[in-house]
Amino acid sequence: MMIKIKEYFTTLFFSNCNFRAKLDNMNEINGKVALITGGTKGIGYGIAQALMQKGVHVAITGRKEETAGKAALALMSDVGGEVRAIGIAADVRDYSSQEKAIQAVMAEFGKIDVVVANAGIGHFGSVESLTTKEWQETIDTNLTGAFYSLKASLEALKESKGYYISISSLAGTNFFAGGSAYNASKFGLTGFTQAAMLDLRKYGIKVSTIMPGSVATYFNDHVPDEKDSWKIQIEDIGKLVVDLLEMHPRTLPSKIEVRPSIPPSAK
User: Fold this and answer.
1) pTM score, two decimals?
2) Which helix (H) or strand (E) holds 257?
3) Handedness of CA 219, 64, 146, 183 (dihedral sign)
4) Residue 11 placed within a domain
5) Exposure string (b/e) for 235-267, b if CB count within 10 Å is 16 or more?
6) Distance CA 31, CA 28 (A)
7) Residue 53: C-alpha distances to residues 3, 27, 192 (Å)
8) pLDDT digits 0-9 by tens, 21-57
9) What is the pLDDT of residues 124-174, one digit of tens each?
10) 138 belongs to a structural domain
11) Strand-pair partners of 207
């Protein structure tokens, strides 16, 4: 009987040690601060929800102050508790606008631990029909905007040894007809983020890009409904971001492709 009791407590002791070791290997993100561009709906909103549920304060940007403010209030209502969200009017195509957004976050929270470059648009059509304005707007938002977001927040991320995550797309490695502008912007974003990862790791800054396939969002004026149930959901991308942030700091998934498990074409 005495031997069995000893065995029981020995097993219990090592189980606790293993459990604590697992906890020690996770990054604690409660109390951190994240800036998410284009966070008023869709993927950005889903990421904000997931982070707030983990105790992360968030700042979301949108081009209109009223829209950003309403989305921030909705996030706080959805999540509850003491975690905070603020909405900021900012245009990622304008570097000075991004600088002001960073200043607003620093004034409110005193730090920035995470930047998610999510803002994006899509203009599609053959090179014959695509206008120069549509081309420039796609590149300026999806690619240059991501650069501006990182450039403006760089000193804050150095200070916090933070994390920069860009939301690219499977269209960043797979081209298709009618996608010249979108493909160019997302191929560029994937390459930019990977190069930035190599540039910034010496400062303790982690950099990753997430490349989703079809996601149930409002992208290009689409309204999600039950027909989108086969697609990736915004909370799935949110969970992925949380997993990246909580991962042991020795490991960096720098480029993550994610796609629907069974698209209609596979049935």
Assistant:
1) 0.89
2) strand 255-258
3) positive
4) no
5) ebbbebbbebbebeeeeeeebbeeebeeeeeee
6) 9
7) 45, 15, 30
8) 444 556 899 999 999 999 999 999 999 999 999 999 9
9) 999 999 999 999 999 999 999 999 999 999 999 999 999 999 999 999 999
10) yes
11) 164
SS3 193: helix
- 194 and 254 in contact (C-beta within 8 Å)? yes
65 part of a folded domain:
yes
14 three-class SS? helix
pLDDT of residue 47: 98
Would residue 32 count as lying in a domain? yes
CB 186 within 8 A of CB 142: yes
Mean predicted lDDT score pLDDT of the chain = 91
AA identity, residue 136: Q
Say which amino acid occupies 113.
Answer: D
Active site residues per annotation: 182
Residue 220 domain boundaries: 28-262
One DSSP character per residue, 84-123 reads -EEEEE--TT-HHHHHHHHHHHHHHHS---EEEE------
From 74, 68, 66, select the one nearest 92 (Cα to Cα): 68
76 contacts: CB under 8 Å, gap ≥ 6: 52, 83, 84, 85
Q: What's 232's DSSP letter?
A: B
In the DSSP assignment, the letter for residue 27 is: P
> Tell me, what CATH number does 256's domain have?
3.40.50.720
Residue 151 DSSP symbol: H
How many structural domains is the chain composed of?
1
